[in-house]
Amino acid sequence: MGKNTVSPDELAALVDRLRWDKRRHPHHGRGEYQATAHQVLETATALVDAGRAGTVVRTLRTAVDRVTRALMHLDDSSGIVGDALQELTDLYARALEQAPPANPTTLASWLVAAQFDGPGWPRIHLRSFAPALGERGIAEITAQVRARAATADPDSWSAQFAVRDFREQLAELTGDVDHYIAVLAEDLKSPEQYRKIARALLDSDRAAEAIDWARRGLAHHPGNPNNARLRDLLVDLLIEDAQTVAALEVRVAEFNRHPVAATFGALAATCHRVGDTALIAPALDELRTRAAKDPARLGELVQALIIAGLDEEAWTTAATRPHDVGPRLLGFLVEQREAAHPADVLAPYRYLIQAQLADTSKYRYDRAVKLLRRLRSAHATADDPAGFSHYLAELRTDHQRKTSFIAKLDRAGLAP
Fold it and tell me: Which pTM value belongs to this model?
């Protein structure tokens, strides 16, 4: 749809189709709704890009309101409509920048209501709306947030989050880094707060303070599963400050605390980045030792071997102990191995087929048939078509009572 072929009336007609009857089944019509939401986004974007934002700002706000309400009742497990809503909201902010509201306090009230009274979506980015709000609108939001904070239920997570989020965004808009950090520091219950502080300090050319805050955050939240971004930032800061040994120490400390493929991968990547790979081998030895003692850790070792580029050891380890590696990782390795070494993957393919037949999923037979086709191809490439015929005959005999499976084999051309 070209920029010169759309009109505000077309957009209004599309937005009118964004109504959703809450009595409707959550699944019925969701595909059409997804398509309409994207049509609205495409049409509105074309109009805004063409400099015609003034003709669509009201319609865009209606679209945002309707999709927000619809998401309370339709099934959006795919996230498609939610993503479209966020894009529509951000586009609305861009349109308002072109065509500012006559009364920014009205916009301020709408944003506060969306934040505090809405269902939790879309995410409101005050920085995007700041040009349209101006000083008057921002002052109105500040006053309303202060009033909301005074009456917010202290036991309500959503109410407290709404207050904290808008206070932090408002503080960031002031441009006063120390004030912004002070507001962020009022709630240091997550590593993300430390990351925001460190990021703000870095953007203000205060790298030493940023490093200090990042270290403090990791020290206060050593086992938090969400501290990876903070750790990555600290490593980046240390490397940029020529503290490569300290950066490696951060990675080693986390690997020692939690020796798995992910922490090994982060350590290996940092080693290569700073040109010092001496720590990779002992880390791998640690994973080998742990896998020898505990078979459940073998998958982590195999993944680490892949990361380290030790493909032969990864393959040998997995192929000799497929039960400890698991079907998913073994399947990945089989796909990587098959082209160059088709004979090597015959036994692993048979293991994967048996694993599917032992599964309880309703798609187990379809997956088994798919694997059988690939096994047949591998046998042919390995110049052993008779081996596949023999295996297929045995498989059909062993599972002859599974009539649905046998029927699928026949339809797939996998007859005796």
Answer: 0.87
